[in-house]
Amino acid sequence: MMRAAVTDAQQQSDLLEAYRNATSSGYDELLDATSKVRPHWQPLLANIQALTPEERAKRAQHLDRRVQDTGIAYDIFADPSKPSRGWRLDLMPFAISAGEWRFLQTSLIQRAQLFDAILADLYGKQSLMKQGLIPPELVFADPSFLRPCLGIVPEAGHLQFYAADLARDAAGQWRVIDNHTETLAGIGFALANRVVHTHVAGDIFKQANALRLASYFQNLQSALTLHCGRENARIALLTPGAHHPDYFSHAYLARYLGYLLVEGPDLRTKGNKICLKTLEGLKEIDLIVRCVDGHSSDPLELDPSGFQGPAGLVRVCRKSPKLVVNAVGTAITQNRALGIYLPQLAKHILGEDLAIYDAPRWWLGDPASQNRVFNNIDDVVIRSAQEGTGRPGQAAAGSPPRKNSNADWQALRRDIALHGAGLVAEEKVGFSVAPTYSAVGLVPRPFAVRIYVAKTANGYEVMPGGLAMTVDPDRAVALSAPDGHARDVWIVSDTEVPPHVSLWRPTVEGARVERSQRVIQSRVADDLFWLGRYCERADWTMRVLRSALRRVEEDGGPANGRRAARTCLEVLLSDPTSTVGARGTRPTSIEIESLCTKLISSGKGYRTLQRTLAGLYRVASLARDRLSHEGWQTLSKFRPDAAWSAALSASSPLMLLDQLDEGLASLAAFNGLMHENMTRNFGWSFQDMGRRLERAYNISEAIHALFIPGTDSEIEANELLLLLELADSFITYRSRYRLDPMLVLVLDLLLLDETNPRSLAFQLAAISSHMETLPDPTQKANLSEPRRLILDLLTSIRLADLEAMGRDGNRKSLDELLQKQLQLLPHFSNAIASHYFNMTDEAPHRVHLRSDFKS
Amino acid sequence: MILEISHKTFYRYGTSVIQSQHLVHKTPRSMPHQDVRYHNLIVEPAPATRYSGVDAFGNTIVILDIEAVHKEFVLHARSEIATRAIAPIDLAASTPWDALKASRTGSGSAMDLDVIQFRCASRLTVPTLEIADFASTFFKPGRPVLEATMDMVTLMYRDFKFDPTATDISTPITRVLKHRRGVCQDFSHLAIAAARAMKVPARYVSGYVLTKPPPGQAKLQGADASHAWISVWAPEHGWVDFDPTNGLLVSDEHATVAYGRDYDDVSPISGVLIGGGEHTVSVAVDVRQAEAAP
Predict the structure, then answer these.
(1) Domain tally for chain B?
(2) pTM for the whole structure
(3) Contact assignment for B272 to A844 by CB distance below 8 Å
(4) Which run of H or of E encompasses B189?
(5) Measured between beta carbons, which residues in chain B are less than 8 angstroms from residue A850?
(6) pLDDT in tens, A282-312
């Protein structure tokens, strides 16, 4: 016993050595004034130190990998040439004691109630402004005060989501540094952090007796169902789309709660309803969980340039004010100047003292505050009162005003006089420090934490966790994470933690929630269709490259097929409508290599491998909430800035062969996962049709380029070998015929044989049978354009007379057969798009009427 | 004066419109100096829903949702408005602009919330230091607010050139100030931004003005236009209208349709379309004085 205790103390001192030696200012979360570990950190620390340093390093690495695999990141489309704003999750969580948690809970619930009442008043009677409790110009100067929403917000039910960014000053007092009443403020990041962290350190989590998140989300789910007023409500989470930096959070949360993830263009009004455009027509939405900015959620009545919500949303909300949570317009209470007036407002509205104060601020719309700030300008940071980003870690840092020159100083004074209503001056509250894991043990880092509140059947409820982020204390007065370093937040309970419930495996109660599997937005169908096309295009292009390089690089490889390889490379490099030139002489290895380089990246055509892979990665990201995690992970090598992709254009030909093998294996794995895991709904049909269409086109194109017009038999034999290789049908052919390839037999296998999954006929038949099952949004009696086209294509192949073609010396009938495919397949693709994806519906736009003003 | 107004807007689209929604401010509101005697708004094709309401500034709005596929869209507003001449105002006797007081209750001669909101910058009237400099040449310490405003609109009438080709809907007012060219809308926005830079409440008014043909010529049909001007608040008189395009104090030849912070709040028709492609718009406005007042 004694020895064990000594070892513990020894290990602890090792783990904490760097921490104790570091100089840091501010309140210390881990150690008390006597340098003892505070009690609520002890179980956590004991468990961390029970791990060997190697084990800790391994877990930290594992955590990095999980974060990457899960895809937690800001801005998945960030320009790869810019420094990436990666998301890092620390092995050390941030611990909050049970006692402190009770204080934070009551304080934040009080705030949620306060903001709820303020919003109802600002958009209702406006008595708070009339009574002088809130300066009117603070509200009127803020563009997030949305006048068309007057009268709607008070009828919308209560403020549904609230989050507060908190920091602790040097005296150990909590201060609110920002309020979020607009959207869900990145709650999906917090949830993903927890899921990832428990995957790596679930044992420590259990032993630390920390509170779980699942019941909070269950209560939230029930509350939203209740808000709709009906069972099986269709609930949609409205996101700005995959290009928004918080898209990950939106997609993750939607998936966790089982809600539809929709974008503005997916929705439209129909009478007094908001409907989702699906493959089966318009479907009414019962509740919109809003993750888009209020001002850009209705281009008709709000910001005319904002198309993140459906035009007419505000009009519909006048009839059904509870349709959107948070109601449109709630951003106004994020105004940082409001914090100054909260103590009086709490007394007036709730009859209570405000439990947590905001950071000390002055509103620069007030002349007295302006003067005060002018006299003490060195102490403060000046920043926008209205910025209000809910994006975790992305708050803009304020600028410390400096009296560099008299001119600057005068300009600043005038600027503040002119725009003061939108500015605050703020004292830096300082940040406390908490331990972060590093290779040398734990080190202290300043941080701030975001905590989430939601309205549930129990009133306001606080999520027992949160999102802690490292901050740069010199610049920050808000949750700005310079390094994207995040931490899970653990509430260390002093009672027994209730058993585990997770929404991933719904309980009987949770299963009531509609999972909306069959509802496919037209946009998602479009993305999946292109996912299929790009997958197949990438596969084919890599096969062509591999076959060509083999004919150059591998000794004993079929060197004679270089002419055929050149033809296939050229056809992919050229405009598909132009015809490939004469086959000429046998190409040199240099010529083949240079064509390969072109096809990989430097060529002009739209079918270079680089473009295809970038397209593949892009649509996969867009359709990501429909892909399994594993499926997504297998595609990670195709991310444009990933090592594999970067090496493509730099590798030597031999290395390239290995790389192509690897790439093809990843694609095969992805296709396998899709095939095994994807629900056979309409989304699957579109994905598969995209794949079939691309394959049908590629095989037709290759046969046409290689065999029209005919050539001498030796060259043709090499062409046939290459074709069988590309179509992965060599073994099938050999097992069937045991003969050297002959044109008629090969064409039968690759064009007409409906049992060969690589043949043209197989692709067309598969597309045709998908078309049979698809709903027809127009519901007309006669055959739709895409059905008519596919029937025509399939029939002409089924009726083709191969033996006659074989006898035809100038190959006229084969030429006609293939030309028809090459012409009609693109038509078919367009017909699918206009029939199902509502191309004209993609972009609502606004009309102006300047011509009204001649005078 | 009785003004008969016909305002017809005709859209023609290149391709079919699948759905169009429009927010319309074409219904004149009652004002202290005008009564609306008649108003009618004809919409073709017939909308699936037609919502009529009042916006945050008390203007009548009509929201149309047209779900019938169409290639043409016509909005025809006809109104009859009785305007009264405004009694002469002693501009020099108004309160100095730097002595305007805000009051939350709006009692007596202080600004209430409805007035205060027009002191704040809006999207199209964001002031810059140049605009504040421009304003301070008129709003000198101690000058009566209405007199200073009259000076400003007089200068704008004299120095600014009316030029419909110089600006478009997205031209910022800083360019209007720099090049001293634009249309009524630009001049109004600039004047409002200047007033608000001095914390003087000012609002944007949209409406019509009676124009007279050159002597000896007949008035052309449909040759009139929508018009825009400004309104500035003084405790003695409430809101007083000035026309910077014509450099005058508004009287009974102007008819108000709506007012707001800027054009965004009162745009006669704005719309969001699905489909439609390229479109052309033609507008015909007629403002005439009724022959005999009944």
Answers:
(1) 2
(2) 0.82
(3) yes
(4) helix B184-197
(5) 168-169
(6) 889 999 999 999 999 999 999 888 889 999 9
